[in-house]
Amino acid sequence: MARYEPKTAEPRQQSRWAEASAFVTKDTGRPKYYVLEMFPYPSGNIHMGHARNYVMGDVVARSKRAQGYDVLHPMGWDAFGMPAENAAMERGIHPKGWTYSNIANMREQLKLLGLSLDWSREFATCDPEYYGKQQAWFLELYRRGLVYRKDAVVNWDPVDNTVLANEQVIDGRGWRSGALVEKRKLNQWFLRITDYADDLIDGLKTLDRWPEKVRLMQENWIGKSKGATLWWDIAEAPAFLPPSPEGEPNHARDPIEVYTTRPDTLFGASFLALAPDHPLTKAIAEHRPDVAEFIKACAQTGTSEAEIEKAEKLGVDLGVRVRHPFDPDKTLPVWAANFVLSTYGSGAIFGCPAHDQRDLDFARKYDLPVTPVVKPDDAETVEIGTEAYVGPGRIFNSDFLNGMDVEAAKAAAIAKVEAAGQGRAETIYRLRDWGVSRQRYWGCPIPIIHCPSCGVVEVPADQLPVVLPDDVTFDVPGNPLARHATWKHVKCPSCGADATRETDTLDTFVDSSWYFARFTDPTAEAPIDKAAADRWLAVDQYIGGVEHAVLHLLYARFITRALSDAGMLSVKEPFAGLFTQGMVVHETYRRADGAWVEPIDVDLTNDNGVRSARQLSTGETLVIGDIEKMSKSKKNVVAPAEILESHGVDAGRLFVLSDSPPERDVQWTPGGVEGASRFVQRTWTLFDTYDAGFAGEDKANADLLRETHKAIKAVSEGVEGFRFNSAIAKLYAFVATIRDNAQAGGDAKRQALSALARLIAPFTPHLAEEAWTRLGEDGMVLDAPWPVWDAALAADDEVVLPIQINGKRRAEIRVPRGMEPSEVEALVLADETVKARLEGLSVKKIVVVKDRIVNLVAG
Ligand code: ANZ
Ligand code: ZN
Questions:
Q1: Is the complex ipTM higher than 0.90?
Q2: What is the pTM of this model?
Q3: Which residues, at least 6 apart from 159, have a Cβ–Cβ distance to it below 8 Å?
Q4: I want to staple 331 with a disulfide (CB 3.0 to 4.6 A). Which of 235, 398, 412, 437 is the partner?
């Protein structure tokens, strides 16, 4: 009996696959299956999280291949972005060199994992061949009106010196730098994602193989809101507001526009509130230092909705009064308030304190009237203390709306303001157009030329790609492209005059919004080869982190729609199936002086359940900290390479999938990998000691055959349902069954081992190939068909019998299949639930239908 040697077996199998070009995509006309993991950013090294992600994809790819699909399973690099420029600024390395050397390094690390990837399709988004095609379709969208330029207040990251999309601002901070984001006005390029807002919501309903959570997050992000816009006439305004010529905005005269989802509560309105940077607030601030102060104070608190929600409600009375649309005699004060967002609706609201918590908090603070107008259906009235009533009910205190329910009152109120020309029904969205301009070097140049006489001119198709210059400097902040001596100076393609290139580059989320389509034919002349895209899209299974729920995954859905409308694609939804995997986490260790210590330098002991840790290099006692996502800062990282070195690829692959469900985090422990490694040995031993000449005993053979079919069924279902951990648990059990059943042999044993080799192949592919060869099979297990189970053999040995008492199902009982009725009867009568049900009754009759049902008559 020989030990299994991953160190020799794994490279042996990997060269076999390479020599056979085994993973080059084959298009044989069979049903297709496109498996894709979110491609990595080439930051330097493959980490454990990457490894888990790609191994999951590989399990899908290999099992689909075995099930007879033509599989597409490509890999590439999301290679533009800030870190490359940071490396340039901090260490003087050119972003291009940094990126491509990281790619080379990570490619080698990935290859070690034995993934069934088609490397012939590899590309990086920073390859001019890739981003040139992106420039081509960008111009196509420009011609179609989906790309435009406007002055916009943008989120400015003062550390990265660039603009961020709303999605990239998390709690008021830059998603990458963590710096507090500032507001600036800049001329920017935008993609009209809002044109697709409704379609993007509707499409979510078709994505039945997406996590519910992600669909909800997208729906909330798009934030469709149905309500009404109302115009409130000004009744009084401060004398200092200057009159302005007819046709120009006049703050002393123009009605204030308000957006509401609750026009039914209009009779409960007690004030209007404007955003701090509403034009009227600002006009008044020019004459009122207290208002100016207020605006300044608001600018200093966080800008995110969450922060605004948490902050104390503050405001200032602007000295303006407006007329109520339904009662011209009634006037309301206009305030500026910190909880009104300038970027939503019209940046102004009417406050109805009785039925909105923010308005109520505000009204209580500034002593504004609280008039309830909605009461629960069965109540006489409703008392408002410190909590607003936001539930359903009937309208009261409200003239012509009295007695209506909320929905009817909304419709009636809207009909009335529309008839009076004081408002209209309106649907608005939280979603904003996607600002894609970045003032950075390491990104895809926007293929536009600015000409003094022709204005914005497209770079002609025969001059694409617009390639980034290599000779740039990073010694000062700002955009290296803008200060390059020659790059931006060109002749206008249209009139020949001196002109300048656009120096903004595209947000890197543009790069990742179509790469899955390019993979279907990465060498196509067109950005996307239509026939190839039709063959392979949509991606059948996409796998990645849930942190991309609203960024990448929404942009990709939008761009797919836009390209589809431009005739370049046929699908609207890029990803038919989505799986969001959990993270790899690890315990943390700290010294008394607070320094983090790497796991490799830690000696753990366990005394009757009391764990302690010591630093190997110093002997110091360590504090065992929380289990956290592996991160460099806490030094709790275990590099895949270390594991592969010590336990082999297959044990590592097995472990990242075995210890918890794929959607949950998995904790890396040395013990876990060792367990996986022992399983590899045990499995190998079964094959290594296999004696084809041993016929076995009938009963043992029959048992093993049944166990084999059960294992095929359970593992297949686990793989299919993305329950890899339970599939692996079943494999552990199956290996134990084969080992323990020493009396089995002959065909049953052969079937068991043949099935086992094929079932482990997606998880531990190298071991599976070795086992396959050891069984004497020709070719590779990679190409062997997935085993199928015989339903009769796989059927459970136990059945669940429903128990009916006087015709009603009252209990159930689990018994061995085929149990005689008399035996079942005894068990039923002794059953606790049944006894409880029969309390005070006597059994008149009991009928047991074998393996089906138990009927009891009692009275
Ligand atoms: C009056 C009212 C009465 C409101 C009531 C609610 C309850 P969603 O559903 O998110 O669209 N609102 C409108 N614009 C706003 C802005 N720029 N900043 C902060 N709040 C704003 O929310 C719409 C509701 O949020 C609107 O309906 C408005 O308050 C407020 F009993 O109008 B409501
Ligand atoms: Zn010109």
A1: yes
A2: 0.85
A3: 174, 177, 178, 179
A4: 235
